[in-house]
Amino acid sequence: MNTPRGARRTDTRLSDGRELIYYDPADAPARAPLEDTRGLPAPQPQVELRTDPLTGDVITYATHRNTRTYLPPADQCPLCASKPGNPTEIPDHDYNVAVFENRFPSFAGPGRTEVVCFTSDHNRSFTDLSQGQARLVVDTWADRTAELGARDDVELVFPFENRGREIGVTLSHPHGQIYAYPFVPPRMQNLLRQARKHQEVAGSNLFADVLAAERKEGTRVVAENGNWTAFVPEAARWPVEVHLYPHRQVGGIDELSVGERDDFAELYLDVLQRLDGLYGEPLPYIAAWHQAPVRIDRELGYLHLELLSIRRAKDKIKYLAGSESGMGAFISDTRPEDVAETLRKAGQ
Q: In what residue span(s) does the Galactose-1-phosphate uridyl transferase C-terminal domain sit (predicted)?
């Protein structure tokens, strides 16, 4: 079937009952999924949620994840398309974008965790995708956001990507994940708390006002197009930090128009290429979508993407030491205006 924005979606299941979804361009031939012949046992995740009485934060314990696959050789990658001698999580011989329920989920029962494979090519990264391929990933995120957000046990849908061993990636194949949280996580609660205070005082949306101020001031803007602006935030915590905002307030990726999705794909690839140009090699990063919660304070939210890197120099990593880990007070070695200027020059 076709998704609301035109991508062709094909649903099937893996041998242990987990859902697998293929996303192909709208004009691609109909896909006839191959059967997963691995005969996997049904997953038995061990998940427990506890609330910290001192902070109110929900902590998830998922002890089964300690046995998940860790940095296998390329010819044994479980995210590649299947081939003789290496049946994988994707039974077909090729794919464009594939999404499946995580075999080692962080949530079970309430909530859900999914893996999003951006391409079948093991040796590429998101940065290497064509604009059309990146655009298909955007449609995939949008479709998953809409479907997961409609579940009664989900409070916030969080697509993200970890890239690089320094970040803690356990599989090198180009992929991201989606956490459909059964609660509103701490960072989003903090953002909404600030947004609520701002709304009460200024009578306007905090995120929209931040975007307007950054576009007007200009020194921290990295790049922009008709529908999106990428900037280094004035109070950036991380050595390299770039936020991408749509010019129109929406709550989720699924609410973006065709033009907004096109412009995001174009700007995102531009920014990723600038990041890789900083030190002449792929930059380790976290790409974190901030979508409005499904039910609570949705009107206060504002969809945006935050790109974060712990690399503070070509051969140096920013570690979260005493002040950051013990007190949550960040001390940065880089100045936001300098990072923005460097990234602007990287595109010239």
A: 196-305
